[in-house]
Amino acid sequence: MFDLVQKYKRVMQVFLGLIALTFATWGIESYTRFRGAADTIATVNGIEISQREFADELRRHQDRLRQEFGPTVDVQMFDTPETRKMLLESLISQRLLSSVAAKAHLTVGDEQLREVIGSVPAFQEGGQFSKPAYENMLRSQNPPMSTAQYEARLRHDLALQQLALAVGNAAIPSRTVTQRLSALEAQRREVSEARIAAQQFLPQVKIDDAKLKEYYEANLAEFRQPERVRAEYVMLSAEMLARQEQVSEADLKAAYQERLAQMTEAEQRRASHILVKTKDEADKLALELKKSPGRFAELAKKQSQDPGSAEKGGDLGWFGRGMMVKPFEEAAFGMKQGETSGAVQSDFGFHVIRVTGVRAAKARSFEEARAGIEADLRKARAARRFNEAADAFGNLVYEQADSLKPAAERFKLAVQTTGWIAKTAQQELGALDNPKLLAALFSPDALQNKRNTDAIEVAPATLVAARVLEHQPAAQRSLEEVKKELTETLRQREALTLAQKDGMARMDQLRKGESAGLTWSSPRAVSRRDPKGLPPNLLRQVVAADVAKLPAYVGVPLETGYVVLRISKVTEAGESERSPEAEQRVANVLGGTQFQAYVASLRARADIEVKPVKPEEKK
Predict the structure, then answer these.
(1) Which helix (H) or strand (E) holds 569?
(2) How far apart are CA 474 and CA 226, in angstroms?
(3) In this structure, is the dihedral angle defined by the CA atoms of residues 20, 25, 30 and 32, taken in order, positive or negative?
(4) Chain-centre distance of CA 249, in angstroms?
(5) Residue 220 C-beta-side C-alpha neighbours within 13 Å
(6) Long-range contacts for 174-177 (Cβ within 8 Å, ≥24 apart)?
(7) Which percentage of the chain shows pLDDT scores above 70?
(8) Predicted TM-score of the model (pTM)
(9) 459 φ/ψ angles, rounded to the nearest 5 degrees
C-alpha cells in the first residue's frame, strides 16, 4: 500500500533477505560451527571473511530480534545451523556486491548521509535530530560504536542499496504482464469448506499391547530419558541494576537544563491530501474545492490514488519536518490552517493539500520530560555500574565456588532454582537456554564437585552463574512407564490416518460428480490480496486450483484431519481494483527476482570457499 509518510523504506532488509535466498542450495553442516586454528571462515575471490566479522553479524542479527520481539526474547533459540547459514551467505553476498559497488564508484555524499541519519526516530528528540541521542544510542550498542564506525557502515550499506535498486529497476515488465498479474492478485474465488476431524475417528481406534511393544522396540531412542540436572543460579544485569538506582530531584533538574534545547517539540502540521496522476486532474480538483470546500473528504475517497489515506478522507495525521517528501513538506508548512493548495508535484504524482491542524513549536515542561530523563539517567548509571560489577561478580563466583550465596548477598540478587534441565538447548528456559551455560552445567567440575559455573554472558549486559543441585544420568524409560502416553500418541496418529483416507475417498467421489455427504461452511470470496482469514496454506491451494470447470474441489491434509475446499464462483477484478499500486507491487516482485538472478550470476563467476568443520571437532 502506498503511504506518503513512509519516506524511507526498509530497502536494506529486503535486499539482504533476497541475497540470502540466492544460495539456498548450499549445505548446512559447514555453517553449524566455525572453529579451528584459522580465523578465516570463508573466502570470496581471495578476500577473507573472519570469525570476528561473522560474530559481529550474528550479534547484529540478535539485536534485530530483540528490537522486534522485545528485550526479554531468548535469542539463543534462533541460533540454529540454518540461521548461521543465512548470515554467512549474507556476508558472502555483501562481499560480492561491495566489489561491484567499488568498481562502479558508487558513493554516498555527506548530505545524503546526514538526511538518512536525521530521519531515524531513535536519533530524535521532540521530532528533531538530537546529537546526544545519536551518540548515546550508538554507545548503548553491543559492542558500543563510534559515530565514525556507524557512518562508515551506513555509507557502505547505502552504496549497496543504490546497486540493489539499480539492478531491480532494470527489470522493466511489460504493461500487459503487470496488468494481468495485478488482475490475478485481485481475482476473487468463492470458497466453502468441509472439515473432516481426526477426533471423530478415535472411537474406532484400538491399540493393543502387541502394537505398543512393536512400536516401543522399534523406536527406543524416543523413550530415552536424557541426562539432566536441577540447578540454582544468580543473574546480574544492567536492567536489574537500573531498578536499584536512585536519582535525586537535583540530578533530574540538572539533566533537564542540560537537555533543554532538545526538549522543544518541533512545529507540526496535520493535513489531508488527494493524490492524482496529472496536473490537469489536480487543477480541476482544486477548482472544485474552491467552489465546494466541504467536499474534500468525499473527493479524496473517490479520486485519491493513495488508498492508505483515501479511505480516511485523505487524512495523513500529524507530521513534522523531514517526515514527508520535500515538495509536500514545503507546501504544507507554508499554509495556514484551513487553507487548500493548488497542484503540488512530488515523485508520487500531484497532490491537492488541505492543512487541517497546526501545532506551534513548544518546549516540554520538566514534568513532561521527567520520566524519560529519569529512565535515561538510571540506564546510563546502571551501564557504568554493570561494567564495574561484572569483574567482581565473576571473581566472586569463581573464588567462592562452593556457594552462590556470597555473590547474591553482595549484589542483592535472588538465588533462583530451575526445574529439570536437559543437556540439549531449545528448552523453555528463557535466558538460561544458553549453549555456554548448559555446557558449563554439564561439565565434570559442575556435576562431580558441585562447583559454581563461571559467570557467563547469556544476553547483552546480563551475566549468569549457576550451580548443580541434583544430577540424573541418561536412562531408558521402560515400556510400562511410557505405556499411557504412547497409547494416546498412537491412537491420535491412527485417527489422523483414517481421517485423511476418508477425505481422499470423498474427494474421489466429488471428482466423479457424486455426492460426498459433506457439510459445507458458508461461502466467502477470497483473493490473494484479501484472504478473508483463510490460512495461507489453504489460500495457496485455492488460487492455484484449476477452475476451468466449476465447482472445483481441492483436498488438503491437515495436522487435525483433512479439509475439502469447494470453489463455486470466480470473479475477475474490475478496472477500479487494478490500481497502480498493485501494478507497482508486481514490478517490485519482478525487480526482486531480477536482483536474485544478478547475485546468482556473481556467485557463479566467483571463487567462494567456506571452511568446513574438521571431523574431530564435530560433536
Answers:
(1) strand 561-571
(2) 5
(3) positive
(4) 40
(5) 4
(6) 177/586
(7) 84
(8) 0.51
(9) -165, 165
